[in-house]
Amino acid sequence: MSDLNVIRKEFLQKLKETGQDSVSRTELNKLGQEVGLKSFGWFTKKDVNKLSRGQYKVPQDISIALQPGGARLKVSSAKVIPFVPTKIEIEDSGSRIANVTTELAITNLVPDVYDNYVPFGNFADILSIVKSGKFFPVFVSGHSGNGKTMSIEQACAKLKRKCVIVSMTPETDESDLLGNYVLINGQMEWRDGPVTTAARQGAVLCIDEIDYGAQNLSCLQRVLEGKPFLLKKKGELVAPSPGFTVFATANTKGKGSDDGRYMFTNILNEAFLERFRNTYEQEWPPASVEKKFIIGELAKCGLTDDDFATKLVTWADAIRKTFAEGGCDEVVSTRRLVQVVETLSIFGDKTKSLELCLNRFDDETKISFLDLYTKVDAGDEAFTVENTDEEKTDEEVLEEIKSDGDNELHPSQLT
How far apart are the first and last CA of the chain? Predict the structure, then answer.
């Protein structure tokens, strides 16, 4: 036996002679000093000797305690018992998580006709797509405030089609779009999201500002294929009803905003973008259309001033051309012109209305835009707008795609 084992044996003997069932680390140190033992890891690290933090069991068999691996048990030859699978009958409890009836599910989803809307640009194509009743996802891009979402909404209004519009934000996630569980009166119930509601009702789904989303949009891959999609949290497969289709609007084409004008827009996954059949670029409305629209907005506010409408459109057109040529960093949208009209209806002062609506721009831009309007208002011949007569009227657009009886809408598409 080595000298170390002799010392350890003497240590264990003294430990046993204490007559205690357990000892503390302090007591171990004291006994170790008596026999000249400095290290106790061989004893304290064995699980069989540990009782709790800083407390150790006093071994009764010194020979076993000296073994490197601690106590060793003799194991007889193991007997292999074959596993016999048991068939367990699983009873159906009959419990089902109920669906919450939301306002979206019971509200009339057909949008109201906006009497002042003037069709232009891609409206006839959008109207044809909605009228077809086919699943045909479309991506519409263009500057802010040029009527992208309104064209889709008004196409549905004219055809009396159900329409669900949902706006994306950087925080919008899968549960916001498809649905999630909610706790109501102590019961877990499922609430459909706008995408699922539109699919169930065979409605037109418009996802506004879709380029605000990023990875969270991957949950729409199956939706954009027009195939049944899975509500993963619920385990339900939703088969879209006839007439369901998807439009997406954005200020970019899903490639991000290089000039920083549209903050928080993302570069969208190429596989996601590939699922849209067509991509439309929404341009500014022609001057004749925009003038008609502004005259209608003036009338809506109880004002009659065709000359002011003409000057507003001429002014905005000049700014847009300058912007396109890189001459300025800001642009005046159709929405901004409507805001000027609404402000005028409150204050009755054109100059003040223009100033208030231009305050969102930096001082240099605001001053230059106001100066430009002053020149337009004075009749400067340098600022003229071509008046095109080729734009179709609202009735002409509808007549162009009027059904001859071969393309009836499915009943689920109507109210």
Answer: 97
Length, in residues, of the chain: 415
Residues of the chain with pLDDT under 70: 1-2, 68-81, 83, 86-101, 105, 259-260, 381, 384-415
Query: Of 199, 118, 110, whose CA–CA distance to 160 is shortest?
Result: 110
pLDDT for 407 equals 45
Q: How many CB atoms are closer than 10 A to CB 376?
A: 21
23 bridge partner residues? 56
**pLDDT for residue 404:** 41
- Written as six digits, the tokens of 103 are 């306002």
Closest CA to 341 of 300, 374, 287: 300
All residues at 6 or more sequence positions from 376 whose CB lies less than 8 Å from its CB, including other chains: 311, 314, 315, 318, 383
For residue 8, the number of C-alpha atoms closer than 13 Å in the C-beta half-sphere is 19
Token pair listed for 173: 């996630």
Nearest CA-CA partner of 265 in 208, 188, 181: 208
Q: Which letter, b or e, does each residue of 231-251 get, where b requires 16 or more Cβ atoms within 10 Å of its Cβ?
A: beebebebebeebbbbbbbbb
How many Å apart are CA 332 and CA 330, to the nearest integer? 7
Asked whether the beta carbons of 191 and 244 are under 8 A apart, the reply is no
Residue 218's nearest CA partner among 149, 257, 172, 277 is 172
SS3 state at 179:
strand
Separation between Cα atoms, residue 236 and residue 232, nearest integer Å:
7
Residues 6 or more apart in contact with residue 102 via CB below 8 angstroms: 191, 192, 197
